[in-house]
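re: that complex we talked abt at group meeting.

here r the seqs, copy pasted straight from the sheet so there may be weird spacing, ignore it
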Amino acid sequence: MTDDDVGAILAALDRPLAPPAEVAEQMWARAAAALRAPALDVAGQPLLPAPGGELVDLVEPAHQPAHGPRRRRRLQSPRSRLLAAAAVVVVAALVAGLLTTLGRQTDRVTAAGSGTPFRARVQASNLSPSGPAPQPVPVPRGGALAPGFEQIISHGGDGRWRVEWVEAPAGMGGPGSYEVWDRDRRLIYRADANTYRIEDPGDPVTNTPVASYVDLDEVAEDCDRVERVDSGGAVANRATRLLRCFRDATETQPATGEALWVDAVTGLLLRRETTVGGEVHGRDEVLEVEYSPDFDPDTFSVTPPEGAQREQEEEDSALGSVLVKGREAPGWEAPRLGGGQISTSELRGRPAIFLLWSSWCEPCVGDTLLTFDRMASAWSGQVSLIAVAVNDDEADAAAKVSELGMTVPVALDPKGDRVKPWDLSAVPAYVFLDGNGVVGAVRLSPLAPEELAAAIDDLAAGRPLDVVAEPPPPPPCEQPVKVEAGPGAPGVSGRVYFGVVYAKGAYGSCPVPTGPYVITPNGSGVRRISDDDDFRGVAVSSTGELVREIWTGPERRGAGESQELWLVRRSLQHRIKLVDRGSDPVWSHDGQRIAFVRKDTTGTVVAVAVVNRDGTGERTVSTDQNVRSITSRLAWEPGDGALIADLASAGGDASTIARYALDGSPPTTLLLNASTPAVSSRDATLAFIHSDPQGADHGRIELARPDGKGRRFLTPPRSAAVPAFYELDFSPDGAWLVASGSPDAADPYPRRRIYLVEVATGVITELASLGVRPSW
Amino acid sequence: MDEEAFRALYDRTLPRVYGYLAHRGGNAVALDLTQETYMAAAHAFHAAAADVTLPWLLAVARNKLVDHYRRAEREERRMVRLRRLTSRDPDEDFLGQEPPEISNAGRALAALPVAQRAALVLHHIDDLPVREVAHLLGRSEEAVESLLARGRRAFRSHYEELSDD
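got the structure back, here u go
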């Protein structure tokens, strides 16, 4: 069969097919209901006066009868249930047309008027058949409302929300399903299955940007151009203000626009229209709203309804009935990558270990395969180790093998039929056989290097294997990880960006709310900007422009060669790409240039460079490789004539700070025992961290004059009350420093906190309970 | 608004829209996306925002299908533990009423990894140039060529196996 034949067979699939008549009628009923829905056009409606907090009667929403086509078969197996859970997310997001989910749930909203309880009926429509949706505004509940569906959204103030489906797409649980947030907990009730789930608020799936409080000034800062209209007409019988926000095309997004109508009195977002390339793309709209309604006492209760069953999410065991410890395993034969055959019978006489993997299986590749490969070399001649690429295209498997530089023999089973006799249904899977082909153990999840080593040792020595098929589930999360605002500095304005990073094991089994955050220095309005799990800091210019590094590589996070620098919007969405390879950006004082470092694949700094704010004029300043590679921090000298950077001194842990002239002349040492420099834009004061890992002063903040003279400690030595500091930035007026620090001598990087330190007094206050890489 | 006109459009176009989606995405996906397509059509019809025609409906359906592929591919990567090793059951017997060469082609297509399936559908069934497919799937043209080559190979082997049964 030639490629042309394949093309012809496929082309024959382009033919009509009628769905069953009954289904067609059910679908029609829904479409017709949408057609008959009240007009969305508010032009010509009477504009109500907008007295402070005056309420508008809420017409009881017309609950459509809870039927509609059964568009998804009842799910039977736990496996399908999990898939269905995924499908919920899929449906929720895809129908809104690639809406990027921003502004995940947070406890606080900074916008004016936040906190006024309300109940609103909202509806979303996807109006354009083409194009990706523009970036949505950051809202307290992120997500996207499926077009053509309706919700009742209730807000009790103070972090309490209820979202109830009036019309829901398949997989959402149908009409009558709802989600309730009560600050720390969330109840998800699915009416169609009479089941519920309670969890810490994670990613909401049934939301819309409208019916949330939005600060138009804040939104405006994220736009390239704005138009404001003081009277935007009536929406849901409320007088509105209108903001039109335009975003220019970038390398990753076409030009988009967004029109936001907010309640002129309360600031509630009542309608949002998005445009792509000038055409209206979608509309989310509040149809009716009632402020401070009499909520039913149960509205925000996270108690499950009587008779509802808790959702069970157990998984089928992937271990079939064939491989039983102590019994002989069936044999198979498969082609070997690079030529030849691998057959289990030929491996007899010597213990053998098989790792079933696939290049598309993330837990299989990387460390799991590398460890296996290393063990194969270490035990060669005594134990046979075979990697079996299952359900994997030969080309994909070969690419992975060469990418990882593996030397272990690889068997190929693209269709999964070769190893079928073993009846395993998941990867990764390890199968341990003794010299007679008798099963010693089967393992269905990655083994740590020491576990694998111990198992091979036992197998080679003929001892019983201490390997369980599947590790016990981790203990439940006892102490949810949260970012709490500290007291901060009252009266100080501005914005501080920081990040929460994931680190294996740092939080036990608790989910970590990773991502970039923004907080006001007075300790209010902490907001998670996105759920990015590889946030590496942003640099804020004197004019408020933001640059961040964005990881682009397929693997090996943090490897320098896959870090790009982008000018980004307030929402941290891409705007202009500045350089293809750069890390740790720092703005010049005049806001015109950015200094950064280039790293190699191991994360070692190989160059210091600068680029103009529009991405032009990139040039290398130095290729001195002693610049610290982990907490590397550059600063601009006053007047922007030279760069200041910290260096790891040869043979020791203590750092020095050196000055790099932009003309490429060799660096000169400025300060010994010092790291992480920052320079005040106001008076050129130099702030840095005392670096002396064995000494009592390690981690204290020091100040000096621009020439490095007049060194003095700003903060006391580390104690139970005083943290050791690591990363620093000045406030724009030079009166404050924001720093990450930890009172814990072990300095668990991912668990650092964010502090403010007053430059005049050295007074330290906590700003956020978790965070790294702060910038102001 | 003219419900009768909309009903006529619905009756006339439903087999095309549903057939388009069912042969490319399977029954369950097709039912969801067909409904969504007509919901979008109802709103557009209602708001007179677009001239709702068969090409318009198919364009909406294709966009929804591409979105589905993108999402499904991400899920496929994430939910590795759930993917069956040995054989993938065709998720629904949606093509039971079709002649064997059609139903076998549909099943062979359904057995492919999502990315390959998406590339084959858009290039060979929808007859889009590689450049356009690359744009829709957010990949480079080289990546799409490679997906097509692997997809054709895998499709051929699944199809021949099904035809032998």
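couple things i noticed - Helices of chain B lie at 3-25, 27-47, 54-78, 100-110, 114-125, 130-137, 141-164. The two ends of chain B are 53 Å apart (CA to CA).
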